[in-house]
Amino acid sequence: MTLGVESSCDETGIGLYHSEKGLIGHQLFSQVEIHCEYGGVVPELASRDHIQRALPLIKSVLADTHLTLSDISGVAYTAGPGLAGALLVGSAVAKSLAWSLKIPSLGVHHMEGHLLAPLLEEKVPSFPFVALLVSGGHTMLIDVKAIGEYQILGESLDDAVGEAFDKTAKILGLGYPGGPALAELAQQGDANAFKFPRPMIDRPGLDFSFSGLKTFARNTFAKYPEQKANIAKAFEVAVTSTLMIKCRRALEQTGRATLVVAGGVSANLALRQELDAMGLKQGAQVFYPRQEFCTDNGAMIALAGHLRLSKGQATNSDEITIQPRWSLEDLEAV
């Protein structure tokens, strides 16, 4: 039984993963309302709230599953990447629990948690596959041979796609969090009203760039401030089309027939439709986590930690260590 603790940014997540029963419990507390008035995440406030939420959430998950701390055989926690203060809270809680219970603990890579989240579903992808990780802080294409065997094929050279969504939403005067608000507004827009560029598709390679697209949206809004919905739609279409083109290239380049899409932006329905259509044309299978596991959560950390702890990997030191910057390619293979 592995307990997972997620605290990389503004959501406190707890999960319990059993070697035979799979995911048996999870809970999440989102800090959206706390940060809403600031228009973005305030790191110090995020850290303070994790301190208040972590232990009560652990107790609540254990109570819901009729378990006690003595039933846990390992503790996994997000060690990075993320906000340093927030990571320290989760790692301190997890390491302290593991030390007091005399059980192993392991620091998990946050993006590996996202990458493996589709394995929580009934129908799971088989290795090897190509993964598209799209979130507020990351946009990357990865060739995944096995757990821990990752090669980054391409990544954003500036804004992550989730960041671009949020910044464009702010330009349009939408609420926080901006990404979902922009996607909702885009449903009312006309896809033919504006034609936005598809950045970096006219050159070889699998890297991304979204800052110019954000600027194009700002300039268009300055000229046509009454056409918010159409601008939102044009922006969303440009982003999803760009991601699809790069995913198609990645599948062709690697010869893979499976695509895994994860991270907060993977919840975007327009993106899913675009990638599903591409998959049908390419003869490729496309897998996503369920909506509740697209954003940060403790279930994915419990799973990722369980897969490594069950193979004997653990953080041997009692020191509380984090890695706010951490490459997936540095991870040890399982």
Automatic annotation (TrEMBL):
Keywords: Acyltransferase, Cytoplasm, Iron, Metal-binding, Transferase, tRNA processing. It holds the Pfam family TsaD. Binds 1 Fe(2+) ion per subunit. It catalyses: L-threonylcarbamoyladenylate + adenosine(37) in tRNA = N(6)-L-threonylcarbamoyladenosine(37) in tRNA + AMP + H(+). Substrate binds at L133, V134, S135, G136, G137, D166, G179, N268. One of its GO terms (cellular component) is cytoplasm. The keyword tRNA processing applies. Fe cation binds at H110, H114, D296. Residues 23-302 form the Gcp-like domain. GO terms for molecular function: iron ion binding; tRNA N(6)-L-threonylcarbamoyladenine synthase activity. It is an enzyme of class 2 (transferase). It is found in: Cytoplasm. Coiled coil: none annotated. It comes from the Bacteria. InterPro entries: ATPase_NBD, Gcp-like_dom, KAE1/TsaD, Peptidase_M22_CS, TsaD. Belongs to the KAE1 / TsaD family. HAMAP family: TsaD (MF_01445). Required for the formation of a threonylcarbamoyl group on adenosine at position 37 (t(6)A37) in tRNAs that read codons beginning with adenine. Is involved in the transfer of the threonylcarbamoyl moiety of threonylcarbamoyl-AMP (TC-AMP) to the N6 group of A37, together with TsaE and TsaB. TsaD likely plays a direct catalytic role in this reaction. This is tRNA N6-adenosine threonylcarbamoyltransferase. It comes from Candidatus Thioglobus autotrophicus.
